[in-house]
Amino acid sequence: MFNHNIDPVLFHLGPLEIRYYGIIYALGFIIAYFFLKRMVAEQKINLTKDDVGDLIFWIAVGVVIGARFFHVFVYNAGYYLKNPAEIIMVWHGGLSFHGGLVGAIIAAWVFCRKKKVSLLEIADIIVIPAALALSLGRIANFINAEIVGKVTDLPWCVNFPGYEGCRHPSQIYEAFKNFFIFLVLWSIRNLKLAKGSVFSIFLILYGLLRTLAEFVKDQPIIFAKLTMGQLLSIPMFFLGLFLLLHFNKIELKIGRVKIKF
After folding, report:
1. Which of 35, 147, 178, 179 could form a disulfide with 129 if both were Cys (CB 3.0 to 4.6 A apart)?
2. Which helix (H) or strand (E) segment is 103 a member of?
3. What are 125-177's pLDDT values in tens digits?
4. Which residues contact 161 (CB under 8 A, 6 or more apart)?
5. CB within 8 A of 150, min separation 6: which ones?
6. C-alpha separations of 103 from 43, 191, 202, 223 in Å
7. CB under 8 Å to 116, separation ≥6 — which residues?
8. 3-state helix/strand/coil string of 215-240
């Protein structure tokens, strides 16, 4: 059993709070920059170092806007409509992965059109450091004592402030989940796969593992005994599977029926 008494504020600069949450997210984008520089060189993508910096900036903006939009209007619309000032207070926590993914894809699409490079090539390399950054993001959630797990009597349960009962450290589970995805993607990055395959595998792994992780999280049931995270992750899994089959032009034969993707 662990009693969570971590102060989410690292230090104060007058009225300004410097929180671990913001620092960890900034660290995630810094790490992504250095990973992308290396992988752009490995894959011989026609981007300069300045272009990589611009790409990270575009994606950072897309991620924050998309992630906050989903968190506010998809997950907690009632609360934020009653407390509109909280909408812009990102440093208090509250960024949705699925919204961040949508925002990142839109930002990357705009960037790729501008630079005339392949969106699929960019997507294949972005998801690798993204998985690592997501792992760090879940650690930030743990520090913030948010997105907690269900009550359990397991010996590694955590007493979170403001919650009754000892609970699953679901944030740590998801940190390991995302780190596992990073290791898988990193290990296959140089294989001769069709463009978009690494991105598709990311969608498959994240969609499946996030769906499973939701079963130990203390989240409201939305429909058919599923949480919002599951309702968004299950289609993500099937989309990734379809894209992987499509990009690799795989044909399935079921009886006399042939299905071409």
Report:
1. 35
2. helix 97-115
3. 999 999 999 999 999 999 999 999 999 999 999 999 999 999 999 999 999 99
4. 4, 5, 145
5. 167, 168, 170, 216, 217, 218
6. 24, 28, 16, 25
7. none
8. HHECCCEEECCEEHHHHHHHHHHHHH
Q: Where do the structural domains in the chain lie, given as residue ranges?
A: 8-147+170-260
The two tokens of residue 111 are 């960037």
Determine the 3-state secondary structure of 212 from DSSP: helix
CA distances from residue 180 to 46, 130, 187, 204, 257 in whole angstroms, order as listed: 29, 12, 11, 13, 37
For tokens 């990102």, the residue is 90
Separation of first and last alpha carbons in the chain: 49
| Integer Cα distance of 203 and 197 in angstroms | 10
Strands 221-223 and 226-227: antiparallel
Amino acid (1-letter code) at residue 67: A
Instruction: Give the C-alpha separation, 36 to 130, whole Å.
Output: 10
Sole residue written with tokens 């004592």: 145
Residue 89's pLDDT band, with cuts at 50, 70 and 90, is confident
Running DSSP on this structure, what letter comes out for residue 162? Answer: T
Consecutive H or E run containing 259: strand 257-260
DSSP-derived secondary structure for 44-76: T-S--HHHHHHHHHHHHHHHHHHHHHHIIIII-
Identity at 176, one-letter amino acid code: F
What per-residue confidence (pLDDT) applies to 255? 64
For residue 16, what are its two tokens?
């300004």
